Structures are given as C-alpha cells and as structure tokens.
TrEMBL record:
Species, as recorded: Dentipellis fragilis
Annotated protein name in UniProt: Endonuclease/exonuclease/phosphatase domain-containing protein
One annotated GO biological process: double-strand break repair
Keywords of the record: DNA damage, DNA repair, Hydrolase, Magnesium, Metal-binding, Nuclease, Nucleus
Keyword Nucleotide-binding: no
Endonuclease/exonuclease/phosphatase domain sequence ranges: 89-343
Major subcellular location class: nucleus
Native organism taxonomy: Eukaryota, Fungi, Dikarya, Basidiomycota, Agaricomycotina
Swiss-Prot/TrEMBL cofactor(s): Mn(2+); Mg(2+)
Length: 394
C-alpha cells in the first residue's frame, strides 16, 4: 500500500516541469511578455489591442515626393546621437471648419515661435505629437515646406489609422534623430478609434569613450473622450503603461490628449506607476495648467469646466528625465480670426540625467538612484530662474 501511494503522487521533477511549461507558454502567448511589471494589476476584462508595425516617410527632393524611410539609414556616429529631445503635444481639433488651414497655422507657429526656425532650418532634435489630425488636414501637413525639409512623418497616411477613423494621431520626428522602430497600437474596444503611436529613437547615453546608443520611447496617444469613456480610459492607460514600463528602452514618455475629466483618471496614473510631468513644475510657477475649456466653439462644451486634459506622462526612475511642461498656443488664431484649436499645446524636454560619469552605470541599474538624482535636480531648478528661461523654446 505504501508503494502504491508513492506511485500515485506525481514525481517532484514532473511537477516542476509542468509548472515551467505553463510559465513559458503563458509568457510566449502574452502580448506584453517582455513588458511585465510588478504591482500593476490589469483591468477586470482587458480587451485585445491591435499592434502593427508603423513605417515612416520622408520627403525626397530628388524624386519630388514622399518616400518610405530608408531601410538602411545613414550611419550616425555615437557622438552625433542626441542626449536631449524637445517635445510638443497638441490636439489640433478636427471638428471645426478649415482643418487644413488651422493646422498650417499651428505648424507655422511651431516653426517660428517655438523652435525658432523662421527660415525653415533644421530644429534641435525634437518630436511633435499631434492628435485629431483630420483626413483633409493630412495632405496639408505633408505639403508644409518645413515638414517636407526637416521631418520624418508617422504614419505615412490616414490608411494606417483604425478602420472607420476620420481623424487620428500623427508624429513628426526631426531628421537629426534616428528612428529605430515605429508601432501603432489600436486600443481594443475603443468606440472612437483611439490609438497610441510608438516611436523608438536612438539617443546617446554617457559621455566620451563610454557613450552608448540606446533606444528612447516616445508615445503619441489620444485616450477615450467624455464621461462615458471613463472605463475605456482606464484600460487604455493600463495598456499605455505597459509600453512605457518596457525596460528594453532607456526611458519612456507619452504625450497627448489624456481626456482626464474624472477624478479616477488621476488615480489610474499613480496606480500604473507613471508620473505626470506637471507635478514636477515648481509650485510657484505651476499655476492652473488647464489646456482646454477657454477656446471652445461648441455650445455643448460650456457644461464642462476647463481642465488639464493634455499631459506628458513618463516612467520615473529611468536614465532620462523630463522637465516640467509649459503651455503654448494660447490665443493663437488664423488670419481669418478663428481659433487654431480648442486645446492649448504643451512643450517639454526629455534629456539624460545630469550625473557624474562614475554614477551612470549605477543610475541605469538602480532606478531609485535615478529618482533621487532627479529630485535633487528639481530642487535646484526650483531655487533658480532656469525654468522661466526655458519657456520660450523647446
């Protein structure tokens, strides 16, 4: 009887093997196998997102048309890789009249007033994250001379937006940045065809002979609108956080229209272990920070109070830091006197931590050290006037 009882029990090695197969199988089938993080509980009923590769295009003056980005781009020396990138996010409002003309005016404003390139010259390394670009406005964007000369564009056409979408997000990346990869994530269950455009770019980490090329992730997103989309926003923000917490990239930041109109929206940011860049602005310079509600033209919008709908969210504790954002485009109108958008834009910078050379490896390996270095940098900025000096230019 004793022998029978022993044989009836599974052998310990067999149990261990079965557990290993289950774990490996689950990791291979899980869409975020490489993005798993602790203390991030998924929604009760997570919906399946659609992830597709996203090519980028550039204008060729020899062929006089937009062409696909080079499959083997020109090699950049390590010392040429940037360690700081300017960022702009702006919802350009697809719903009002003359969307192409308003977008053209917004691009002129960015060229001349924000990036200080009145002659159409190359800006400092930067990325422009646009939301609500209408079908009709996409052609106007590709016709803008400054965009043609100095930027890569993702996606190549509105055909890369989800089926049925009449508007979508567009990311512009200056040509002095190497694009490593592009992805389009269509949020599962979105009734408004909302997406996240993921662009991994190469940056330089370190200095001198120890400088390395690493990938920095920039995400352009537009989350579900209105009170009815609160549940969808929670799931979309969870998906967004999974991509930002991918530790295969040296840092990650998301900019866009987060539609944060409910108290739960702020809770979900913290629950997903993300940080709102606005919280890093010194308290004496912070102000109200609302980006929507002052230039609206729809009568139905008067029932909603102005709010800070547009944000930069980032993964704290990485080797790159993001400074506090500032508002752009307030009161901007076209030549016909129309508001360019019902949203203000936001400008910001992401850059490598200012740490000593001997601490770089420590910061990369121990996120809490990077967070402490970041906190010290914020304290220094709060005590001086450097924040005010940055507000005019990305």
């Amino acid at each position: 009887m004793r022998i029978r009882r022993r044989l009836s029990r599974p052998h310990p090695v067999l149990l261990w093997t079965k557990r290993l197969i289950r774990r490996v199988g689950a990791a291979c089938l899980h869409p975020f196998a490489s993005l798993r993080t602790r203390n991030m509980s998924p929604p009760q009923n997570p919906l399946q997102d659609t992830v597709v590769p996203l090519p980028y295009i550039r204008y060729s003056y020899t062929q006089r048309c937009w062409t696909n980005g080079p499959s083997k781009p020109k090699q950049l020396r390590i010392e040429e890789l940037p360690n700081h990138i300017g960022l702009v996010t702006w919802n350009v409002d697809m719903s009002w009249s003359d969307a192409p003309g308003r977008l053209w005016c917004a691009l002129n404003f960015l060229q001349g007033e924000i990036f200080k390139c009145p002659e159409g010259t190359m800006p400092r390394p930067c990325a422009v994250l646009l939301q609500e670009v209408a079908h009709a406005a996409f052609a106007a964007l590709l016709a803008h001379p400054w965009v043609c000369a100095q930027f890569y564009v993702l996606p190549p056409s509105p055909g890369f937006w989800p089926p049925g979408a009449t508007y979508g997000a567009v990311t512009l990346v200056s040509r002095n940045i190497r694009v490593a990869r592009g992805l389009s994530v269509a949020y599962g269950g979105s009734r408004m065809q909302r997406t996240a455009l993921i662009t991994d770019v190469l940056v330089g980490v370190g200095a001198g002979p120890t400088k390395q090329a690493r990938a920095l992730r920039i995400v352009n997103t537009h989350l579900e609108s209105l009170e009815a989309g609160t549940e969808q926003r929670a799931q979309q923000l969870w998906t967004l956080a999974r991509w930002l917490h991918d530790h295969q990239v040296v840092g990650a930041v998301a900019g866009g229209d987060m539609n944060a109109i409910a108290p739960a929206d702020e809770t979900h940011v913290r629950r997903n272990r993300l940080r709102d860049a606005w919280d890093d602005v010194p308290a004496r310079s912070r102000g109200y920070g609302a980006t929507w509600g002052f230039q609206s033209r729809r009568k139905t919008d008067v029932q909603h109070a102005p709010g800070r709908l547009d944000k930069f969210l980032y993964r704290p504790g990485s080797a790159f830091e993001i400074s506090g954002p500032w508002i752009i485009g307030q009161g901007l109108k076209t030549a016909d006197g129309e508001w360019v958008s019902d949203h203000y834009g936001l400008g910001d910078r992401v850059r490598e931590h200012e740490v000593q050379e001997g601490q770089r490896a420590l910061v990369a390996e121990q996120p809490h050290v990077a967070h402490e270095a970041y906190a010290r940098g914020q304290q220094r900025r709060a005590g001086g006037g450097r924040y005010g000096e940055k507000r005019g230019r990305v």
